[in-house]
Amino acid sequence: MVQLFKFLLKSTKAPARSHFRPTFLDTLRLAVRGGHGGNGLPKYGGVGGQGGCVYFVAKEGLTLRKVVQSLKDKRVVASSGEDSSKASIFGRRGVDQRIEVPVGVQVYDERQKLIADLNENDAQCIVAGGGVGGCTGTNFIGRPGENRIVNLDLKLIADVGLVGFPNAGKSTLLKAVSNAKPKIAAYPFTTIRPQIGTIEYKDLRSITVADLPGLIEGAHANFGMGHKFLKHIERTRLMVFMVDIFGFQLSPRHPHRDCLANIYALNRELELYDPSLLEKPSVLLLNKMDKEGAHEILTKVKPIIDDLASGLEQCPEELRPKQVLKFESVVPISAMNSTKVVQVKSQLRRTLIRLAEKQFVVDSEEVKEKLQQRVGVVGPKVT
Ligand SMILES: Nc1nc2c(ncn2[C@@H]2O[C@H](COP(=O)(O)OP(=O)(O)OP(=O)(O)O)[C@@H](O)[C@H]2O)c(=O)[nH]1
Fold it and tell me: What Pfam families does the record point to (predicted)?
């Protein structure tokens, strides 16, 4: 009877909607413990083996969800060192536990102190050291391994980060330029988790684009889970702001923000979250240019966009940033128009190439000075 009751209850429960299933994980809390040190053998002055350590190793193509699935109870314990014995005076070391984590993971301790930033493939760190083996110094008793809770925080690594308020057309663009298949709809917050797409070029070069869920005013203070999305911008090489040329209104209760106000608001959100983000190279895409009246708006706003500081006075006070963004380029587009989309693709690539070249520009005077310092006054003359 009880079984029947349970079955009936189960069958009436609505299945979770796949759209809301949290498939994207970007934080994870794990308990890690190094192995216990083995005991020494006092009679022979033996030394116990050291306990194994817990390592995190960054691997491309992994997700935090896969990490969770591969672990039991979100706990990782390395094995203990062996005791020393008559046959083996030095006990064998405990076996290390190497846990593979996605590239881009930052590891924090319980006090939110950064332990490691694993932002390259094969980068590794010890998160829990093994206990030392028993020896004369420890009265031949092995010591326990390090035992701690660590928090993993994944920040996506992509060449380009698409940033904007909801409904601007970010997912439409990502779908048009890359292999990603994001959900697109005419209501805000269609994208609820970051998506990464790869843009492939004819010469087989590719760049990665992260579509971040729409921000809202107050994102810097974590409104609308702003921090969860803004943190991913930190690791992108180029920020691409996307704004609806007709502006955006979150709901009838919120004021309508025109295109300029949207740009200032995005600028301000970034500034309040982390002012150093304003130094990052950025491109502005003005979307929905296919709609009637778009070109008239563009003619009006373009001079101000080219010099954002000049329009600060007209900007509503609550959106006014202290420091304005300087865009590498401003491109009017329609994410629904394939010709424009192709132009965006090449524009993004050109900008990334230019940025890479800028990074490697060598200041010859500086190099000369450094060389001179290295060879010293008696060395050959540096010309
Ligand atoms: N007319 C026109 N409509 C567009 C264009 N780009 C996107 N849209 C429409 O705008 C709506 C929102 O597009 P999305 O791509 O979902 O916008 P989003 O910025 O990803 O929105 P969130 O997921 O809420 O962040 C959809 O109905 C799109 O069809 C465009 O270039 N022209």
Answer: GTP1_OBG (PF01018), MMR_HSR1 (PF01926)
For residue 257, the enclosing domain spans: 160-359
- What's the mean pLDDT in 251-270? 91
Cα distance between residue 282 and residue 248, in whole Å: 21
* ipTM value greater than 0.85: yes
Q: Domain count of the chain?
A: 2
Strand partners, 128: 54
Atom of ligand 1 nearest to the CA of 172: 15
Mean pLDDT of 245-267: 91
Please tell me if the CB atom of residue 97 comes closer than 6 angstroms to any atom of ligand 1. Answer: no
Find, among 159, 39, 56, 50, the residue nearest to 94 by Cα.
Answer: 50
Instruction: For residues 247 and 230, give the distance between their C-alpha atoms in angstroms, rounded to a whole number.
Output: 21
Separation of 335 CA from ligand 1 center, angstroms?
8
| Residues in Cβ contact with 90 at an 8 Å cutoff, skipping those fewer than 6 apart | 46, 47, 49, 84
Shared-domain flag, residues 169 and 295: yes
User: Residue 167 is which amino acid?
Assistant: N
Asked whether residue 56 is assigned to any structural domain, the reply reads yes
Dihedral angle over CA of 93, 95, 99, 104, nearest 10: 20
User: Token digits for 215?
Assistant: 């921000």
Task: Note the pLDDT tens digit of each residue in 295-312.
Answer: 999 999 999 999 999 988
Atom of ligand 1 at shortest distance to CA of 242? 19
Please give the pLDDT value at position 203.
Answer: 86
Give the SS3 label for residue 183. Answer: coil
Distance CA 47, CA 95 (A): 17
CA 204/CA 207 separation, integer angstroms: 10
Does 13 fall in a domain? no
Does 150 lie in the same domain as 183?
no
* High-pLDDT (> 90) share of the chain, %: 49
Give the domain CATH number at 329. Answer: 3.40.50.300
Q: Are strands 329-332 and 238-244 parallel, antiparallel or unpaired?
A: unpaired
Q: Which two tokens stand for residue 270?
A: 């970034």
Residue of the nearest CA to atom 27 in ligand 1?
A: 186
